[in-house]
Amino acid sequence: MADATNWVGSRLLLRRLRDVMAGEGDAQSRLDQVVTIIARDMVAEVCSIYLLRPGDILELFATEGLLKTAVHRTRLRIGEGLVGDVAAHPRSLSLDEAQDHPQFAYRPETGEEIYHSFLGVPILRGGRVRGVLTIQNQSRRNYTEEEIETLETVAMVLAELIAGSELASPNEFTAADGIALKPLRLEGARLNGGLAMGKAVIHERRTKISQVVSEDPAGELDRFDEAVQRMHRALDEMMEEVGGHRAGEEHMEVLEAYRMFAEDRGWLTRIREGIRSGLTADASVAKALSDTRARMAQIADPYLRERILDMEDLAYRLLQHLHEGENGGERRRLRKGRDTVLIARSLGPAELLDYGRGSVQAVVLEEGSATAHVSIVARALGIPVVGQVAGLLDKVEPDDFVLVDGENAAVVIRPGEDVRQTFSEGMKQSAERQAAYIAARDLPAVTRDGVEVTLNLNAGLLLDLPNLRETNAAGIGLYRTEILFMVRGQLPGVDEQTHAYRRVMDQAEGKRVVFRTLDAGGDKLLPYMPVAHEENPAMGWRAIRMTLDRPFMLRQQLRALIRAAAGRRLDVMFPMVAEVGELAAAREILDMELARARGRDETLPADIAVGCMLEVPSLLFQLPQLMTHVDFLAVGSNDLMQFLYACDRGNVAVSERYDILSAGSLRMLRDVVRAADAAGVPVSVCGEMAGRPLEAMALVGLGFRSLSMAASSIGPARLMIRGLDAGRFSGFIDALLDGNAPSLRTVLCNYARDHGLRI
Ligand code: PEP
Ligand code: MG
Predict the structure, then answer these.
(1) Collapsed DSSP state (helix, strand, coil) of residue 62
(2) From the candidates 251, 321, 373, 612, which is the catalytic residue?
(3) Are 477 and 686 in contact, with CB atoms under 8 Å apart?
(4) What is the spatial distance between Cα 277 and Cα 2, in angstroms, rounded to a whole number?
(5) Does position 412 have pLDDT exceeding 80, yes or no?
(6) Are 512 and 552 in contact (CB under 8 A)?
(7) What is the pLDDT of residues 382-399, one digit of tens each?
(8) Cα separation of the two ends of the chain
(9) 52 closest CA partner among 3, 157, 122
(10) 686 is a catalytic site residue
(11) Collapsing DSSP states into helix, strand and coil, what is residue 480?
(12) C-alpha 33 to ligand 1 mean position (Å)
């Protein structure tokens, strides 16, 4: 960051710019003055401003140094030329010889051939590129860090000034007229299921900044510190409010992690430095926000992107508190009508809670992922969420009617009457189906011929626990403990883990809970455990491989599980085991922890069952040996099938290529049941296939008597099982397995239809 002399210089420049923009004359003449001031101040022969026009075109709006006749004539697409390159990434670009750069695009009308060095910075506002600001020099020179930083700050100030002028009338910066008014179907990613409809409310984040340049940095610093205090208090209040709610614990976890970001020193320091360099507190927060956004564009890691989204949410929240400080306002409560479909680029968990319970019917996001904090909170509130909808904000207008199909990750904007009717019908049928599941909730999952199938839940958060009662599932067949590790900003200690597992067992009210030890790594990254870049993370340093290499993690987790179970039954299983030896090593660690607890006179679990997940095909060839080491087995079909077919479970290009309902894979599963039955080891399936009625039917036909699935699948599975004759169907499916059919899906569908089973 700049030293004190530079701050003074940059303050003067910012002040001059502000005076010009606030002064007399039309917008064009003010921009013309702005480029002259910047060029003079930065000792550059050229300063140019390119602004974004509809159609992603960057148009030269003002220049000092280039030929004036090029103004409004020179236009570049995003990605075209150096200016387009700066906008595309978006990031600053400093070159001592512009013409050597592969992206250099010569524009004869500008007369720029005599200039060699080039510095371009994006003009960002609200995280979006609004234009590019450049300076150029005839001599070949390297621009210094301070110069780059100063031009970035100037660009930030310009963004605000331009937004407040007629240069950025909304018509100029939104999608081309006409297109936006037609009905549109958009697809995204399913972040939470369910169907809903309502009117679009565009989630407004306060970015309007009344003053950009400050006269009194010390006063601004005080104002900023007070706002930070107020924000912390408000977050504490929110946590207290939410903490009282029955299923509030995950909100708490999420909000606690979030609260930690609010105290991130580096972030706060950067904002304070911006204030010292002459920005108002609001402008400096907004600059931090733009920087964050720009950084985000470079980051592929989904976990880090989410954390950056949290920072972004905090920046908006901070702006709100700065504003409220001025008005003496209270924490806002946004209460919209009860038919709100919230439209946002991204949304923080606390922002969703700001709307109050019951008003938001669905959320649609341009960004977002299934493990994003807002998705976790939305799941707790039962709100469908569709994320990753490209170009959403350019396509939806406030008050547009919107249909949200969380199941199929689709959104229809401004639907025609017929589509709306069909959707309403779909919602009605879905409600009827739900009613049928609820009516059958207390009936046993027993086939027509008396075969009982245990239906368990998959869970990973305390807030999933109420589903045990709501679905009347037998227990929890898979508790993914990694989620506890993922929503926190640091490795949870033994006490914290003990507390969490104890609460899970308490809330399960005596029903069995199978805890799976940490399955981190792969795509489930822990922010506090940096891992080397891996070519194939799904096959890399993850799950039991990681915890056996870092035994303290496994020891701590097992210690916590033993303590949480004290006097109760403990079921624990290990993920991604590829060799029987790995399971034996994990068991040894468990025995060590049991001995330790015994030595300390702690109350031990009343009973312990140790299980192994079958997710790696190598284990298929060690089944008899494996059986002697385990009390139960759980087939993780998601991973098992991905490795069996060498087919990435998250890659849409190959995900439809193979059918797990093929004769080959079903034969493999039948062999697993047979081996387990022969050894008297209970076996279940807890991958996604167990939760799909047709696949679940096939599994029952193969001999599986225990399935574990998401809460929403229990009802359909129960009804399917109650309609099935297991003995007859086993004979039917067995006969199909002798062949080589790549898919038995149609045959099985026909069977289900012919026997009146809803699948
Ligand atoms: C599986 O692989 O099937 C499984 C249940 O584990 P996860 O989906 O958590 O990898
Ligand atoms: Mg798995």
Answers:
(1) strand
(2) 373
(3) yes
(4) 8
(5) yes
(6) no
(7) 899 999 898 898 888 888
(8) 62
(9) 122
(10) yes
(11) strand
(12) 61
Sequence-ordered alpha helix ranges (H) in 55-139: 81-88
Structure-derived torsion over alpha carbons of residues 175, 181, 182, 188, reported in degrees to the nearest 10: 60
416 Cα distance to chain centroid: 31
Tokens standing for 554?
């496994």
Pick the residue whose CA is nearest to atom 1 on ligand 1.
Answer: 636
Q: How many A from CA of 305 to the centre of ligand 2?
A: 23
Q: What phi and psi values does residue 704 have, to the nearest 5 degrees?
A: -70, 135
Burial of 427 (0-12, 13-18, 19+ CB in 10 A): middle
> Does the CA dihedral 333-334-340-341 come out positive or negative?
negative
Distances (CA, A) of 496 to 309, 485, 490, 749: 26, 11, 11, 47
R_g of the chain computed on alpha carbons: 30
CA distance 389 to 189: 7
Pocket lining for ligand 1, CB < 6 angstroms: 478, 480, 519, 615, 636-639, 686-687
What is the Cα–Cα distance from 384 to 410, expressed in whole angstroms?
11
Q: Which ligand sits closest to the CA of 523?
A: 1
Question: CB atoms < 10 A from the CB of 225, how many?
Answer: 13
Which whole-number Å values give the CA distances from 95 to 147, 155, 303, in the listed order? 13, 18, 33
Cα 45 to its chain centre, rounded Å, is 45
Annotated active-site residue in 251, 686, 749, 755: 686
**Of 407, 427, 559, which is closest to residue 498 (Cα–Cα)?**
559
125-128 contacts at long range (C-beta below 8 A, 24 or more positions apart): 125/159, 125/160, 125/163, 125/207, 125/290, 126/205, 126/207, 126/289, 126/290, 127/289, 127/290, 127/292, 127/293, 127/294, 127/296, 127/312, 127/345, 128/293
Ligand nearest to the CA of 636: 1
- With contact defined as beta carbons under 8 Å apart, do 433 and 687 qualify? no
Ligand nearest to the CA of 642: 1
Confidence of residue 250 (pLDDT cuts 50, 70, 90): low
Question: What type of residue is 2?
Answer: A
Listed in sequence order, the residues at least 6 apart from 290 whose beta carbon sits closer than 8 Å to its beta carbon are 124, 125, 126, 127, 156, 159
Question: In DSSP terms, which residues pair with 133 in a beta bridge?
Answer: 49, 121
Distances (CA, A) of 51 to 151, 325, 691: 16, 33, 51
610 alpha carbon to ligand 1 midpoint, in Å? Answer: 18
Write the residue with the smallest CA distance to atom 3 of ligand 1. 636
Question: Which position has the higher pLDDT, 59 or 18?
Answer: 59
514-530: per-residue pLDDT in tens?
999 999 887 677 767 77
Q: Which atom of ligand 1 is nearest to the CA of 642?
A: 2
373 is catalytic: yes
What is the Cα–Cα distance from 107 to 76, expressed in whole angstroms?
10
Residue 149 CB contacts under 8 Å (≥ 6 apart), including other chains: 1, 2
pLDDT at 172: 31
3-state secondary structure of 547: helix
Which of 542, 577, 638 for mutating ligand 1's site (highest number of atoms within 8 Å of CB)? 638
Q: Which residues on neighbouring strands pair with residue 574, listed in sequence order?
A: 612
Phi, psi of 539 (to 5 degrees): -105, 20
Length of the chain: 759
Q: How confident is the model at residue 660 (pLDDT cuts 50, 70, 90)?
A: very high
Report whether 684 contacts 635 (CB < 8 A).
Answer: yes
Q: What token pair was written down for 146?
A: 């301070």
CA of 709 to the centre of ligand 1 (A): 11
The larger pLDDT score, comparing residue 325 to residue 563, is at 563
Tokens representing residue 542 in the block: 């993850």
How far apart (Å, rounded) are the C-alpha atoms in residues 298 and 292? 10
